[in-house]
Structures are given as structure tokens and as C-alpha cells.
Design a protein that fits this description.
Radius of gyration: 23 Å
CATH class of the largest domain: Mainly Beta
Number of domains: 2
CATH architecture of the largest domain: 3 Solenoid
Helix content: 10-25%
Strand content: 35-45%
Largest sheet: 26 strands, parallel
Amino acid sequence: MKNTKSIPFLVLVVLLSGTCLFSSAQKNDSNPGAQSEWVYKGTDGKLKYKTTHTGDRVMDFSHAGYMGGGVALPVVEVKKSVKPSGGADDTELIQSAVNEVAALPLKNGFRGAVLLEPGVFTCSGAISISADGVVLRGSRINKTTLKITGDRHTAIVIGKRRNAQTATEVRNDFKAAETYLSDKYVPSGAVSFRIADTKGLAVGDLIEIRKPVTKAWVHYMEMDNLVRDGKPQTWIREGSTINTRRTIAKIEGNKITLEVPVSDSFDSEYAEPTGTVVAKIQPNNLVSQCGVENLHIQAPPMQTSHEQALYSALRISGQDCWAKNLLIEETMNSVGTSGSRITLEEVAITRTVPNVGASKPAEFAPNAGQILMNRCSSKGDNIWHVGTGAGIAGPIVMLNCTFVGNGHIEGHQRWTTGILADNCVIPDGGIDFKNRGSMGSGHGWGSAWSVAWNCTAKSYVIQQPPGTTNWRIGCIGTNLPTARPFDKSPTLPLGITDSPDAKVKPASLYLTQLEERLGKQALKNIGY
């Protein structure tokens, strides 16, 4: 490795530990060792999955990431280079270059990259990327710095401008179709199920599976008795839906097969009177093929609460987008995503000044489906290293990530499903898939059908929501029995622990699933 003295220490730790965690564990695959009873290789070399009595299983997480996983991040040709002005504000200088490249025609899905040459760029406003196929690239993280100043803002925003943003892309030829699940129960991890009617549906259609939030289900989840400061709290509003978006891969009679498995389960017993609707929807109106690379983003240290903090680093609202090789310093709620099929690779966030107050920032907020955090890190105290929002349908994967400080990673609120923490290290913090009760504004059950695989942490709170579970497999550290926050009892049921304090084969669940689905080249494409 060249020029290592000029690369920040934390980034070096992430780069080295991420690679070594997998390569060293990979060697153990040929030696005797612990084996998970929930996912393991059979005598034919293929992965085998144990199921619950209702057929639920650890899902195939390998669809997480750019282009659905296993695809190398593109190297986009530079179309415009920018030097720092040396003045008080370079915002317009950079934005003008981005706009110039955004006006170029698309070629194979890309317009081009804007290269920020070595030096310090001072920016008092957000840099916006709102056209497909545009990349903002620094010369290297130890050569190009984006220094944030001015009023409260996010340094870089990838996504449609507000006056152009709609939930879906308007198509004149679109014909709606709506039906409902006819299977009494669809297990988590399933890739196919039966519906009442396939009329109007075709292979390639985007569908939305709408799980109804009924009074019966909220009661079953024991979420209808949340109280804080004497006031009732609402977990998820009755009458709303929790939506999973998937693409149809095959139709056989009334059975449809999806490109990506479902991360949640769907039980008809708690879906009445509406049932679980399956609706054809129009494609997301999101930017695609955009990225941010090789950049140091720096804010001034601030001793404040995250609700008053001035600066965040990056927001991505897109599909098939990425961020790689970023060093981010002193921001709060630093990186947030929405959309689908996003990769964050070697993104390192560090804070030297603790967040003030009980409420904590989520330094990574992966609120998107099919998101991969590969060899990312954060360093700081009194934070959520990773925290998800409400109703996110995975897969959401943290692979070979390192988190330093007393923070935690967790499904933060209101039913995110399908999280995988794979070979993550949190020596002074924890991994939590739990019931947050009346914390926040009634966050309740934060996540289900989620897995911690071969992780090392100081603590875990891996609990079992009614009718579902979470898994802790091959993990080192203690799973803590707790009651619901603000309650003294009862202690909530723990999720499934498999091979405690003894790491299992295969070394990485995500990488093994990816190799089985797409072959060894897919691993090479993402750096393994």
C-alpha cells in the first residue's frame, strides 16, 4: 500500500480490518469448526436453511447493493475538472460544474464525473446532483477536502429537486392492477407466493405488497398499551400499511416469483378486513447511476445536540447510486439514504466532540431497500452508529464494518425487517434488534427477521417480537435480557442465539450467499 502515512488512521483500520476479517475467516471454511443450524453448507456445497414451524428462514441478503449486488462500482469518465478558488465560498463553482455535466447526454447510463482537484473547497451551501449519471469525485480523501461553513445544510445531496420530485414516474401507458395474497401465510424469506388474480400483471412489473396495520395485529404485537409521561403513544397508525416493493420475475398460474425475497412475513389472521393487497405500481421517480467518491468532508467541531447541529454530510435518494472512499468529520446524522440498490463503500465518519443530550444522531441511516454498507465505520460517543427509520423492508447489510465508541446499531423504530450485521465489530457498543417501547414517540418494535452473524460486540439486545424472531449467530458478546423501556417487567423473550461466542462457517453470510447466486466473479467485483 502506497502513501499510507497520508491516509487517516481510522480509514486504514477500516480498510485493513474489513479485508482481513473475511480473508482470515474464509481460510477456516476448510477446517473443522462451529456450524450454524440455521444456515450451513450441505454435503453438495450448497447453503441449507432451517425454517421455523411457519416456514420462515434467514433471508437471502445477497441482493443488497448497487445494481442488486455483486456488480462493481463504475469508473465514470471525467468531463469537468474544478480547482479550489482560494476564496470564501466555492459552492457555486462546484454546482456550476455539476450542472454543466448534468446537461450532457446520457451515454450507457452516464453523463460524466466532476473532478475536484487537490486542495480545500469551502462550501456554505449544498451541492446538488439531480440528474442521472453524474458523479462528484475528489482527487483522494487525503488530497481533496470539502469544508462546510455557513447556515445549516447537508454538504452533498443526490436526488430530484423538490419541485420535480414525485413518488412515482408518470407513464401514460401505465395500467393499474390490484389483487391480494391468497396464501394464508407467507413466511419471511419467501421468494414466491399465491395471489387471488394475476390479471394485469406481467414479468418485470414493480409491485407493492401492502401489509395492513390492523387493530388485531397491533394488539398481538402488544403495541396498543404504550404510554409516556401519562400520554398514550402510537406505534404504527391503525389503518396504515407497511409496504414492500418487489419486481416480478416469474408468473405460473396464480403463483408469482419475485426477483428478491420478502423480508417480512404476512399472516392473513391479522390482515382482516382488507387482506394484504398486492398492487402494480409505477417505477420510482429517482435519480440513478450517481455517486460521490474520494473525498474528505469536514465540518467544524460542535458541542451541541443533533437536533441543533448545523451540518450533515450526504443524502442519497436514488436507485443504483453509491458513495465510496469518503472521510467525514464532525457532522451529525451524517449519511442518510432512501430509494433502493445503494452501496456505501469505505465511508468513515468520525466525531471528536460528543453529541449533547439523551436523543442521539444516527450517523448512518440506511432507510432504503437493498442497501449495502461495505467496510464502513463510525467513531464517536452518545450516537447511533447505524439506525433505521420506520417500515423499511430489507435487505439492509452491514458487511465488515467497524464502529468505535459507546454507540449502538439497531433497527431504531417501527418495524424494519431484514437487517444483516455481518462480521461487524463494536468493541464498546452493541447490536440491538429490540422493542424500544415508548422511547422516542413510541418507537416500539424496531426490527424483526434480522441477523447478527459472526459479529463482535460488547453487548446485544436481540429479542423476539411476537410471531417473528431475530437471530444472533456465531457472535461474541453478551445478549442482555431486558424489559421494555420504562417497564420493570416482564423481561422480553430473547431472539434465537446459535453458536454463542464461537464463530461459525461460512465466515460471511452475505458473501457466501452472493457467491452461490452469482459466482466468484461477483465477490471480486465488490473487492473480495
